[in-house]
Write a structure and sequence with these properties.
Elements: H1 2-6, H2 13-28, H3 33-51, H4 61-76, H5 79-98, H6 108-111
């Protein structure tokens, strides 16, 4: 993911597929039936970010680092570090959705 993001492909199909796959693997292997059941919903949300033009071609470095930190923490069996890194991802997405929209796109919060 990092290579694609740093190459300006963060809004492309290959980056999207990797991002979805990472989240899907985490959710389905969590041992939590609810998380597992929500994997498809999360895939739709991630896809929607790209289709709505909310995913930058160059993802913020902090988001790429947070994804890698989740993977490292899971591989090391460090649940606390994985949770903290995933919280960073959620905060980044929330911040991206809260940013001022493009002039031709109404604010997402205003639609809710």
């Amino acid at each position: 993911m990092r290579k694609l993001g740093e190459a300006g492909e963060g809004d492309g199909a290959e980056f999207l597929a990797l991002d979805i796959r990472m989240h899907e693997l985490l959710m389905r292997s969590s041992g939590n039936e609810l998380f597992s059941a929500l994997a498809d919903v999360v895939a739709v949300v991630i896809s929607g970010r790209i289709h709505l033009g909310l995913m930058p071609a160059y993802p913020v470095p902090e988001a790429l680092e947070a994804h890698e930190a989740v993977a490292r923490a899971v591989a090391a069996g460090d649940a606390e570090a994985a949770e903290e890194a995933m919280a960073r991802i959620v905060r980044e997405v929330r911040g991206a959705l809260d940013d001022d929209p493009a002039p031709d796109r109404p604010a997402l919060r205003a639609q809710a």
